[in-house]
Amino acid sequence: MNTMTALADIQGLLRSAISEHRCVEMVYYTAGRDATSHRVVEPISLDSAGYMAAYCRWRGEVRTFATWRIRWATLLHETFEPHSYVAPLSNPPRTQDYQPWERQGYPPYNSGHATRASRQGCLLPAVLALAVALILMVRFA
Q1: Which of 89, 92, 101, 137 sits CB 3.0–4.6 Å from 106 for a disulfide?
Q2: Are residues 101 and 117 located together in one domain of the fold?
């Protein structure tokens, strides 16, 4: 078993899994929770935008996975019966799924929650500096 980590290698591995009806073990990054999860999936289809439809054994249902969020994947020897599921013709990404730096192979920057929190954190020093300046102006005026 070869473990793949590069996006092109992972997509090639997924194409092989789909054509050979073989299971894939993978670690998947979920931005909404800023967490990774270990999964075994039965790949069904892979579209040109990089989305894979697969039966997720952990969730017990067909899910859509963004291939650029797969941290590593291994093609298992275990096979499965083909699914009758038909992937949608187009699968537009949700806003939180479209992060171009991830498609270029960079690690995730951070979740939206951390971004909002860090923006709020940058405002606090500015407000405190303004308050100190006003107090000093009033006191020494």
Answers
A1: 101
A2: no
